[in-house]
Amino acid sequence: MSVSSISPIDIRAVDKSAAWRAPAQPPPLSLYVHFPWCVRKCPYCDFNSHQQSETESEASQLRSRYLQALREDLESALPTVWGRTVRSVFMGGGTPSLMTGEQVDELLCDIRALLPLEPDCEITLEANPGTMEAQRFRDFRQAGVNRLSLGIQSFDDDKLKQLGRIHDARQALRAAEQAKREFERFNLDLMWALPGQSVEQAQNDIRRALEFAPPHLSLYQLTIEANTVFAKFPPQLPDEELAFEMQQRLELLADGAGYRHYEVSAYAQPGHACVHNLNYWTFGDYLGIGAGAHTKLTLADRVIRQERFSRPESYLSHTAERRFVSRDYAVPVGELPFEFMLNALRLTEGVPATLFAERSGLPLSAISRVLSRAEARGLLEPDPTRIRATPLGLRFLNDLQSLFLAQSRG
Q1: Rounded to two decimals, what is the model's pTM?
Q2: How far apart, in whole angstroms, are the C-alpha atoms of residue 270 and residue 4?
Q3: Residue in 82, 164, 94 with CA at minimum distance from that of residue 125
Q4: Phi, psi of 18 (to 5 degrees)
Q5: Backbone angles phi, psi at 184, to 5 degrees
Q6: Which of 135, 202, 307, 367 lies at a CB distance of 3.0 to 4.6 Å from 192, suitable for a disulfide?
Q7: Is the four-CA dihedral 257, 258, 263, 266 of positive or negative sign?
């Protein structure tokens, strides 16, 4: 079942004559830093991650080269963000917690030397329980990391083995305890609809996570992505109806524990929504450095996107030439509505209608007919002050978002 089968929307009536105008104020700016190595590639993962060198000596030398490349990458990007202040920094991967505390300190010192950070800048580092050492977590905090995102995925040994994770349930528990001890702000990542998983098993995972009272929870449904081991050898996943029941039960458990379901996969205690991800979802700007990192920036005459060289060896080999960007292009004006909606519609409360013009540079009238017809079919709330998906729209979010993709290519 899909939204398109429920009732098609004629997107030919969309107004494509509206001209783009630079926002009066540039959107907030975030910095993303990609660390491309893992101990081992997980069979479900389609991120730009690669198994690190077998010997610690080789891996350490490569990390040192990479840190130098990150600094040069950031230096080369400064003209595009000159004078702008960064509201959040996110170190993702891969497994950034493979870095030592000293290396994270070096990286953050370089960032602070080159970019002005807001006084309360959120600085997140992703960590794997399989790389957890108590001292390392303390070192990360002392280096300036003020938010840890811990990739638990499950507290069930059997499920962790099926997911190809390098940690077991005992290590997951120890890592969560240490995160709670060292960080006021931390996130626990969990996955549901795992191979052979029952509703009760999914609920047991979130109950275990809630024992640590994490300020933030990320609950992701396992999906089979192209170019992964699971795509080649697909496991037996719960069917659509069972997965939907799991989702409803998990939402009830989180709600009962005082968490607000503010984004499709994100739950937070009051005041602990992820600043970095909220900037993505409200179509803010972000500079991405590191192998395969993506950038979206609003300039005086256009919105641009950039992609860094993806494979670590290619990224590093271009460092001598101070070439880091493999692709750099202006986003076609007609594609901006889809790009905005791809993010904003993930927020359960939606966004103010005025934000569309503020962030996309296009008047709301450019999409008003599509909005009206989506509302008439129960996909968007009939509120002229907000753009917000209904429960039906959230359930079939891809279909709803695709309406704006179709109109941009129409």
Answers
A1: 0.93
A2: 36
A3: 94
A4: -65, 135
A5: -70, -35
A6: 202
A7: negative
